[in-house]
Structure formats: C-alpha cells, structure tokens
Amino acid sequence: GENVEQHPSTLSVQEGDSAVIKCTYSDSASNYFPWYKQELGKGPQLIIDIRSNVGEKKDQRIAVTLNKTAKHFSLHITETQPEDSAVYFCAATYGYGGSQGNLIFGKGTKLSVKP
Amino acid sequence: NAGVMQNPRHLVRRRGQEARLRCSPMKGHSHVYWYRQLPEEGLKFMVYLQKENIIDESGMPKERFSAEFPKEGPSILRIQQVVRGDSAAYFCASSPSHGRQPQHFGDGTRLSIL
Fold first, then answer.
1. Which regions of chain B are under pLDDT 50?
2. Burial bucket for residue B21 (CB in 10 Å: 0-12, 13-18, 19+)
C-alpha cells in the first residue's frame, strides 16, 4: 500500500522568510496530493492540492510542486507570517474514480514563524 | 457555514464503557471517512462509508469498532468496551461522491479513557 514520508518534522523560520516542506510517496498510482494545515484543537484544513497531471500550482503565498518521476511533492510558503504557525500535513491518494479515495497522511511538520 | 459537524468535541469514558462519536457531513455530501489521530502523529484512515453502505473498513480494528451511516441522520463511529489505547482524536471528513476529492474535515472528537 501507499506510504508517505514527510520532512522535516519541525521547522522554525523568521517572519518574512520562506518555508519548504517535502514529502515522498511510494505508490506510483497515486494521483492526488493535498496539503492540510492543522491548528491546535482544530481539524485539518485544506490549503492547497495538486493532481498528477500538473507540475506546480500556486495560490497567493502558497505553492505546491510535484515530481512524478521522483515521487515527491513539496509545499512552499513565501513571506511567512506568525499566523502560518501550525502543523502541516501532506497526503496522497487515488483521486477521481478511485476505488477508495482514503487519504494516506505524512506525520506532519510543526512550523513555527518567529516575529 | 454548513461544514462537517462532529459531536461531542470531547468525550471521557471509563475503561469498558461504550463511546459513540457522531459526524454530520457537509450539505450535499454523501460520503464520509473516519480517521484517527494519536498525539504527535498524522491521521490514519479507519473507514469509508456511503449512505447505508460501508465501502472500505480496512483501517478499522476488527474487534470493538463499528461504523454506520444511516439513510437519515449522522454517521456514527462506535467503540465498545473502550481501553486506554483508544484515547485519540477522531476526525470525520466528507466528500460529494465516490472517491471524489477534496475531503473536508470536521474539528474532531477528542476521546479520553480513564
């Protein structure tokens, strides 16, 4: 089955700097890769996702890149702000039309943005 | 805001009791997923349900755990004879149709076993 590895487990940056979180997956059939942000006491909130027919996607300060050959994808946050501090999770799954669709999550990255 | 609603938010049970966790999906969503999160860990898939059907329960322990999603009302995750190891946060997510993404999550039920 699918396995998702996420690095680093913790990341501390200064406000205004960029943050990069990387994930690798094992199942080449996976075709959907979301990123979730989880704040303390809350559920995961989808912040961006990418499908396997696309190499990069941007939404304001957030971008995700996908390398299908190497089976890895990354989250990039630019101009970080203190409110970006949270735990970020990557995930992978079969997307549209898949027989399951359940998400396989990485173990998370705790991002701290220092003012 | 018709997001995914879970209740209760916190549940305390003694060993051997039963825990019932409820999830109402987003409006228009007919598919529900349950995940479990241990402290400092990612979420682990448990079960995937459609109205009145269990589609995939490969992540759910065979003993003591069950799930349902009736035609009317919320999805229920039931844990019988709880043990200390069941202490975790349980999250529900919903999607509009079979295998469709993205999934939207509720804020979870934090289960504590005394």
1. none
2. buried
